[in-house]
Backbone:
């Protein structure tokens, strides 16, 4: 079979959403004829396995502009951007999986104490606090355990959100008094 035949089979398989076989056909075509344009098809098959809609759009764009001299360079740029975006999304998802809820933090505090639990969060995880009262409780614990600078940073970043909240205002006063 010729490289053109394998390429045609690859395009057909890609259009049928059979990305594994499409990739196999493009690899076979590349084995017959070492052509950079075939490498782009192979990359598109790989992308289709993780980002279907994006790969379909890029595939159609690639076919439409296949004859242009700069298409391989252009497609490499598109594919690099896609890969970077997918890696970023994966890393963000991995980071979410490392997050700790405030309830879990409180359980850890019971076992290890505030200081050790807080240091574990700082060095290993993110702490997700979705309730305003829990957040104010957390600020109070920071102050009670000697983390005035950290608390001050949180106060500065959230002062507009909690402006007028009595517990928040009391915490600000306590912080000012501890600074004296």
Residues:
């Amino acid at each position: 079979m010729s490289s053109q035949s394998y390429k045609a089979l690859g395009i057909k398989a890609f259009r049928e959403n059979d990305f594994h076989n499409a990739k196999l056909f493009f690899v076979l075509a590349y084995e017959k004829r070492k052509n950079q344009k075939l490498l782009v098809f192979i990359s598109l098959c790989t992308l289709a396995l993780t980002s279907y809609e994006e790969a379909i759009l890029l595939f159609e764009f690639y076919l439409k502009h296949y004859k242009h001299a700069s298409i391989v360079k252009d497609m490499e740029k598109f594919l690099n951007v896609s890969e970077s975006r997918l890696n970023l999304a994966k890393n963000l998802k991995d980071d979410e999986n490392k997050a700790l809820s405030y309830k879990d933090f409180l359980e850890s505090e019971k076992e290890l104490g505030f200081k050790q639990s807080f240091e574990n969060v700082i060095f290993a995880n993110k702490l997700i606090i979705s309730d305003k009262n829990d957040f104010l409780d957390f600020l109070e614990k920071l102050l009670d355990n000697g983390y005035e600078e950290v608390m001050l940073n949180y106060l500065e970043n959230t002062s507009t959100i909690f402006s007028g909240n009595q517990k928040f205002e009391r915490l600000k006063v306590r912080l000012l008094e501890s600074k004296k």
